[in-house]
Amino acid sequence: MALTRAEFHGMVSDHAPALYRLAYRMVGDSHDAEDVVQETLRSAWRSRDRFDCGRSQRAWLASILRRRVIDGWRRKARTPYPAGEHGIEVPVDGVDPLASELTDEMQHALDSLPHDLRESLLLVVVGELTHQEAANTLGIPLGTVLSRVSRARGRLRQYYLAEAKR
């Protein structure tokens, strides 16, 4: 059964902040994260008739967001850059809306993780999905998600211990 406009707006207001946090940590740039969230919500609106009412709204939106991020990575990999052409640099006040919550240092630590560990951790911790929802989103067994999240946390712990010694 398709989501009504009111149900969709409620879903957006409930889950958009978590989607933004997840997108920001996946792409590492606030503007790109906003674009990904917009694309995610646009895709969700277009496919609202396929929403399964028995499924978590956040897990559904997170799986769409993940696909949009992957699509973006694929587009960037295929984008040719003409020789000798330079982009225009425009100064922008770069204020990280999550600066008090998660720092650039955290982004560097996350970037040091292998992709599969980082993705599982972000879905569970930042995306606030249950481990089972993350497993369903990634199409992998629950035990694999549990293992990846545990290993990711351990590696982050080691990263910060090493940084503290410096």
Task: Compose a concise summary of this entry.
With 166 residues, the chain is an all-alpha fold. The chain has helices at 5-27, 30-46, 57-78, 104-111, 115-126, 131-138, 142-165.
Describe it.
- There is one protein chain.
- The protein is an all-alpha fold and 166 residues long.
- It is 69% helix and 0% strand.
- It has helices spanning 5-27, 30-46, 57-78, 104-111, 115-126, 131-138, 142-165.
- Helix 1 packs across helix 5 and helix 3 crosses helix 6 (131-138).
- The N and C termini lie far apart (56 Å).
Sequence-ordered SSE layout with sheet pairings:
Layout: H1 5-27, H2 30-46, H3 57-78, H4 104-111, H5 115-126, H6 131-138, H7 142-165
Helix pairs in contact: 1-2, 1-3, 1-5, 2-3, 3-6, 5-7, 6-7
